[in-house]
Specification:
The protein is mostly helical. Helix 1 packs across helix 8. The strands form two sheets. Strands 3-2-4 form a three-stranded antiparallel β-sheet, with helices on both faces. It has two domains: 74 residues, no CATH class; 63 residues, no CATH class.
Length: 154
């Protein structure tokens, strides 16, 4: 298996959504995005000529993912728990008043929007992005170690 850049894994993890997933090809080291729609089409063995050309390639790759052991799924959006990251960040703030205000902001609906407003208001936005990046890097490192994937920083 090729050596993977940790930053590529972090970037892919950050780009996922509820309907888009990333897989690492163990043979090539390539990270490939697959949509939920492409995976469904591959699972249901739907004819690939019915879709646009760009989607045909995604469905072919999805079939390969299903039929071989060449691919490993990266942690999905549901595995990442960005809300938990925000909680940990709030608790890491040394100024108790700011910490409490941020922690209050993440309770209830609209937590992500309020949190973004509060980190800007308190001037800790850069600290948050560094904390978040560090958290993603830790998750990516752990994922690589758990899957025996050799990686380099960068």
């Amino acid at each position: 298996m090729p050596i993977i850049k940790l930053s590529d894994i972090v970037d892919a993890m950050q780009m996922q959504s509820e309907t888009m997933f990333n897989y690492l090809n163990k043979k090539t080291g390539e990270i490939v995005p697959i949509s939920e729609e492409e995976m469904d089409a591959a699972e249901n063995d739907e004819p690939i000529e019915d879709g646009p050309e760009w989607q045909e390639e995604g469905i072919k790759t999805a079939k390969e993912i299903l039929e071989t052991d060449d691919y490993i799924p990266l942690p999905a959006q549901f595995d990442i728990h960005e809300y938990e990251m925000m909680e940990k960040f709030c608790l890491s703030i040394k100024n108790q008043k700011v910490s409490d205000d941020l922690f209050s902001a993440i309770k209830g609906g609209g937590a992500f929007r309020r949190f973004k407003d509060k980190i800007q208001q308190h001037g800790v936005e850069q600290d948050w992005y560094q904390f978040k990046d560090h958290s993603y890097r830790e998750m990516a490192t752990q994922w690589c170690e758990d899957n025996d994937i050799k990686f380099i920083e960068g």
